[in-house]
């Protein structure tokens, strides 16, 4: 969309907004049509907006939708007429800004994309000229060179209400220590941007450790963000958080929500990476769950999203069992304050993986047969009537592995799941209920899935996909319940890799530290 | 977990899923004879190219169940034919109508409109990823070659409000390889066709188009006109546009689209 930028001599006083959207420019205006510009083509310092008019009664709907967010004009006009939006612009409550930077490098201001491959070009019907658009964040509404982003500048109205922590469990000593250390970090005034790492083993009860810190921040009137890698995890966290904070507005944002839910007001937000992009300078406490598991690990995209969503002076907390090397290094040299929780909440050791040589399994698999070592282990598990997770490196191997299991162990129920499986949720819940004995899976189930008394085997553990962190996470599936704190974790391989050895060392080290 | 070797060997990126993939290296590639691959093999494999048409008129793919009007022993091509012999039920029904007794609308599509193509078209049209048009524009030009002499190429126009909403006319981008004349305009803003059933579509499009100023100026009598659009579902949009051309004196109107609906989509 183009705007008419009113020249100085036409404005009676400097309090007037300078920008009028094209649809509101009178057709008979003498030279309006020649002066229509896109925001990207306008020098930044020319976008002056009036001061917030305290006497103006802003629309509730608009305030709820826009507080803490930076949205595309199209997202708002889908629900609210442009006329009303422009009124709020004139009263200083809303400001326009360009959604793209063309200098020094073409950049999408919403998602931070700079990759030339991920920009398209069209002859735009709105700005009537060649117009670039971002292909990287297309699923959230198209950002193009002529589309404005809107921010809210009205009163923040920090809620002075008392938030209740409704969680009544008790923390283990190790959990408690971490929770207190984290709570200590939360303050009402940060000196710039601060970071904190919670390095907690799988099954240590990470979510519960976060409650005191979240509670403290909420009571200071600060909105809190919990960012997680996958929609599955968002949906799992939502009921727990809602139960823990009964009088707080807890909202989950993930792809596929209806617009009415997408822009709802929230005090505690649980969101996937993409949904972070809608928030702007809003959260002073950001918790990134499973920081190493984001689709693109902790790379530029997530960093950009978090940087935009948090306020300038804020605290970002990384929570994970397997921090990426960069964070470990920073923690070790003392640049990143951190706390370690090397013990599970039930106090038992983490099961240490065993490495078992499986011979040339690829060759055997071609004949739909499994290595003997795996068959023997399988039979043993079936005799004990245990449930088994079998991790495989690639989707393509799955049918052959399933055939192999069926051939060597009759009357055993086997299912296979992978990331794009439409029945993924049903299959996993069937396994949880115990209806399936063996679940063959790719690495998608490496985190967040808790099944009581499950045993784990990794088939072809020497594959590149099984990194140290993936293997540690996989081993963390076992022995999570206090009734059955132990179990088998076996890496079946055709040659040990460094990653396998590092994973075992990592787990042993955590166990050793936990005793102290 | 990709190593530097992968990046060295994989230079292409899929236009739809944005993943890197390695193009096939063979003699046609070395001699510059092969087309540049825009889709990765995984995405390419999900497209169902129409290789044999069941109906000579509307270009319905042959595999379709419930339309046993074709002798399966005869090998049929995907290109336009000059004398249509086999007609599907829908096209015979159209032929019974007065104004279609002496005129025809031959249509060919590149692909069957399956679930995957539906996603691709949604990304293209509704999400607005205009670059996707480059996947099809060259192929549409090739498909139109079998139609013989074409004098004028035009596209189905969008209503002004829809054009503003989308920012571009998808049909115009698909026709990027042709020299397009804008012969038509919409008389009224119609609801999205994708939300209607067959009868609703036909009723809604009665007189939906008229000649544009450019169209009025252009002498159409005796001309063969090609219309480019995105999806052929019942053909009512294209027929409604074609009847305007026939009234203006066109001798034959043909159409090419990217996708031919086959009624097998998940709802």
TrEMBL record, chain A:
<dbReference type="GO" id="GO:0005524">
    <property type="term" value="F:ATP binding"/>
</dbReference>
<dbReference type="InterPro" id="IPR014001">
    <property type="entry name" value="Helicase_ATP-bd"/>
</dbReference>
<dbReference type="GO" id="GO:0003677">
    <property type="term" value="F:DNA binding"/>
</dbReference>
<dbReference type="Pfam" id="PF00271">
    <property type="entry name" value="Helicase_C"/>
</dbReference>
<dbReference type="GO" id="GO:0006270">
    <property type="term" value="P:DNA replication initiation"/>
</dbReference>
<dbReference type="Pfam" id="PF04851">
    <property type="entry name" value="ResIII"/>
</dbReference>
<feature type="domain" description="Helicase C-terminal">
    <location>
        <begin position="369"/>
        <end position="516"/>
    </location>
</feature>
<protein>
    <submittedName>
        <fullName>DNA/RNA helicase</fullName>
    </submittedName>
</protein>
<dbReference type="InterPro" id="IPR006935">
    <property type="entry name" value="Helicase/UvrB_N"/>
</dbReference>
<dbReference type="InterPro" id="IPR027417">
    <property type="entry name" value="P-loop_NTPase"/>
</dbReference>
<dbReference type="InterPro" id="IPR001650">
    <property type="entry name" value="Helicase_C-like"/>
</dbReference>
<keyword id="KW-0238">DNA-binding</keyword>
<keyword id="KW-0547">Nucleotide-binding</keyword>
<keyword id="KW-0378">Hydrolase</keyword>
<dbReference type="GO" id="GO:0016787">
    <property type="term" value="F:hydrolase activity"/>
</dbReference>
<dbReference type="GO" id="GO:0006302">
    <property type="term" value="P:double-strand break repair"/>
</dbReference>
<dbReference type="GO" id="GO:0043138">
    <property type="term" value="F:3'-5' DNA helicase activity"/>
</dbReference>
<keyword id="KW-0067">ATP-binding</keyword>
<feature type="domain" description="Helicase ATP-binding">
    <location>
        <begin position="187"/>
        <end position="341"/>
    </location>
</feature>
<dbReference type="GO" id="GO:0006310">
    <property type="term" value="P:DNA recombination"/>
</dbReference>
<keyword id="KW-0347">Helicase</keyword>
TrEMBL record, chain B:
<dbReference type="InterPro" id="IPR029057">
    <property type="entry name" value="PRTase-like"/>
</dbReference>
<dbReference type="InterPro" id="IPR000836">
    <property type="entry name" value="PRTase_dom"/>
</dbReference>
<comment type="similarity">
    <text>Belongs to the ComF/GntX family.</text>
</comment>
<dbReference type="InterPro" id="IPR051910">
    <property type="entry name" value="ComF/GntX_DNA_util-trans"/>
</dbReference>
<feature type="domain" description="Phosphoribosyltransferase">
    <location>
        <begin position="216"/>
        <end position="261"/>
    </location>
</feature>
<dbReference type="Pfam" id="PF00156">
    <property type="entry name" value="Pribosyltran"/>
</dbReference>
<protein>
    <recommendedName>
        <fullName>Phosphoribosyltransferase domain-containing protein</fullName>
    </recommendedName>
</protein>
